[in-house]
Amino acid sequence: MKAALFNVDVDSLWVYAQEFGVNSKTLPDLAYQEALPRLLEIIKGKNIKVTFFVTGKDLKELPAARNFCRQAAAQGHEIANHSFSHCGRFEALSVKELENEVIRTHNVITEACDTVPVGFRSPDYNINNKIFQVLIRHGYRYDTSVFPGWSTVLMRLYYLNFKFKNKKFGNFNYLLSSSMPRRLKRSKDWQKSFWELPITAAPLLRVPFHPSVIYQFGWRYLNFCLNVLKIFTPNYCIFLMHAVDLADFTNLKNKKPFPDMIFTKWQLKDKIKLINRYIDFCIESNMSFLTNINYIEMLHPSGPNAGISLQTAPVR
User: Fold this and answer.
1) What is the pTM of this model?
2) Torsions phi, psi of 287, nearest 5?
3) Based on the structure, what is the number of domains in the chain?
4) How many helices (H) and strands (E) in the chain?
5) pLDDT > 90: what percent of the chain?
6) DSSP alpha helices (H): ranges in the chain?
7) Is 171 helix (H, G, I), strand (E, B) or coil?
8) What is the pLDDT of residues 6-20, one digit of tens each?
């Protein structure tokens, strides 16, 4: 059995406005009222389970966010922690500040969705041992912030075009990071183990292929990456997207906070085609769509899904 973990980082427009240091109060909620319902419609009837990484700020302030997450959780999707305020330089926060970011979001997800989050992704994909210890202390089962390969280099070069405030993507140590899931804390009790689930890069060249990169390099680049994946038949893939990847910016009057962000330039029909291309690839490759936590339950020998045939070594 091969696993496809479909992950969505729900960064609302205020996150991008915050990175530019501009006012976001006039921006509409394109994530929860438009993009994410559109995704649920795309995957309807395809037996696809998604892991949504949400910010506590959205859940606290937006009724649409609470309604969506409650609906998604009821449909069997996973709601995971993406910090409270999506602040820049997350890894530089003090332990007390990190605790606050994790716990506030943890509590609001639990209250809004009647489900306890066990997964985390750091803003800007930067993680360190200090954050790991906070997560382990509060009962989290996994982190998925590591982007192996050339992602850090490519994204930092891209961000040189913008005057971001406190923006730092990834970590140069990830250039040589393993693409395999790693158990960072071992325990005979599967509920007490802690894992790192690296985001998948195309093998050999170790280059990213999530939509943000495809917007820059185009369809031929995507087809190349997927063809390489197909040759090496991975048993584990995290397919990453952001909520804005299914937002329609055609009628957005105020584009000032992100004038040249490439996701505003792609037509909605092409964005939908791109997401369907990922889905079709997984189906053609006989992959099963799992939530992140369901996959971890298969990895641990004492987990509830242990014994299902699933190799733990993904593409490198």
Assistant:
1) 0.90
2) -90, 145
3) 1
4) 12, 9
5) 52
6) 13-20, 30, 36-43, 56-61, 63-74, 95-113, 129-137, 151-159, 211-217, 219-231, 268-284, 292-299
7) coil
8) 999 999 988 887 777
